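A quick word before the example. In earlier lectures we treated sequence and structure as two separate objects. From today on, think of them as two lines of the same record. Here is histidine kinase written that way.
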Amino acid sequence: MTTKTIFPGQANYLDAFIKTAQYLARLTIHQDVWSETSKLLVNFWGADLGGFGDRRSNGEIAVCHWTFSTELRERMDLAAEVNEEIAEVLDSGFLSWRFVSSTPEPLVIAFLPISLENQVTRVLLVGHRSSGLFPKDLLNIYLALAGLVGTTAERLASEAELRKHRQHLEELVRERTARLTKANEQLQSEIIHRHRAEEALQKAHDELEVRVQKRTAELENAKEAVATERQKLFDILETMPVMVCLLKPDYQVAFANRGSREKFGEDRGRRCFDYRFGRKEPCEFCESFNVLKTGEPHHWEFIGPEGSIMDAYDFPFVDTDGSVLVLEVNIDITERKRVEDALKQTLAELSRSNEDLQQFAYVASHDLQEPLRTVASALQLFEKKHRGKFDKDSDQLIDFAVDGARRMRALIQDLLAYSRLNTRGQAFGPVDMKEVLNQSIKNLRSLIEEKGAEITCNHMPILMGDPIQLIQLLQNLIGNALKFGPAISPKVHVSAQQNGNEWIFSVKDNGIGIQQKYFERIFVIFQQLSKKGPFHGTGIGLAVVKKIVERHHGRVWVESEVGTGSTFYFTIPDRMER
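And the structure line, produced from the sequence above:
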């Protein structure tokens, strides 16, 4: 097979170069100069192959953008044969060529340096099927073409960079424009809001001006009213039947009413300790000015002129001008103290008299029992021995004498028990009122069975008290209810209900009732309402009840309706120590 040397005609070199330059000049950044140049060499310049080689970052030689003519039917792997030449051109910067013998036909390849930014960074590979060298003119044209490709690559890179910068600039412009637009909108909104705020501020200013004028007028009126009220206060203080004065912190007298002036005289600009006591320094015993430190009212006593005893009440007082004063109210309690001392002496004498009376009642009732017992026994023996031997009137007189002795003995025993309530009482302790009620009922069992009575109750609490006296208390109340109840089947109900810090007990019966005018009298000793008829007693039972309740710091009263029944109430504190 004969190999021909196929090169473009020399006459066409310049024309082809110009057209190539025009074509490359029209390339845009969206096109690949390397692929386009490789295709141009084969399709326009008639080369059998075109491509580019460069050195990667790891130092390896790489060939890319291969383009082959149709005569080279299969793509051949020429990398191994061209890598050394590519490396040499990249290092030296000079063109080179070589024959490739591994192809079916002889192939000569030119290696042309391409400079980017004054540095050889790529190698243009142009191959023709030929066994001879490249014509010199063609080689120069290819060398110029390599320079043109480098220039085009730099142009496209610059255009790409410029486009990138332009896009970035346009983005910045858009962002800046958006920010400016937003800022402008905000500025417009702020201007509108500011106008509105200024209008609102002006309106508020006008309203405030009106309110200030109104308030000023109100303050003037209030000042006049305060002055009027202040004068009214001084007028009231002036006529009060006590000594009133206003003291300044420097002991000067701001005001003194008539009572104070009558007692201490006119101050005439002198300080209180001077015109009251004739002293040159503040009184060491004075406690009036403590209120300026504590801000709290203060009560104390002092000895005034001529030895009078003064009861002093001091209060912090703020005057209309804001100054802090001491409002002092003095009461001459000399006479009251004298009366109190006399009353204390009287109470002490009364207490001794009560003690003597209680002792007398105890001694009298105790000492009278023995002779009374002798009289009663003698009368009973006389009755047994002589009943029926005398006339009917004599027998009746004997009955009266025996019954009177018996009643006198009961009265003395009750009086003795009454006198012992305060002296023989037990110390207070926890008491189960249910057990107290049960014991009271047990003590009255004979009377309950005799009457056929029904005794009921609800819940009973546990209290502090004297269990013996509380049994006596309920026993007396229930006994009275049975005594003054119906002759057949009387009913008695005992209840307890808590009310705040105390318990209210009640004993309710269905007896004859009590008139309201006797509600207080029945609790007085020896005050028995019914001295005749079937109701017998000494008149001490309810007095004992009252005394026991009072010893337990309680109250006792009765509610009743004649013909319906009575309810006796008494209270005992929920918690009590003694």
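Notice the following. The two ends are 147 Å apart (CA to CA). We will return to this example when we discuss secondary structure assignment.
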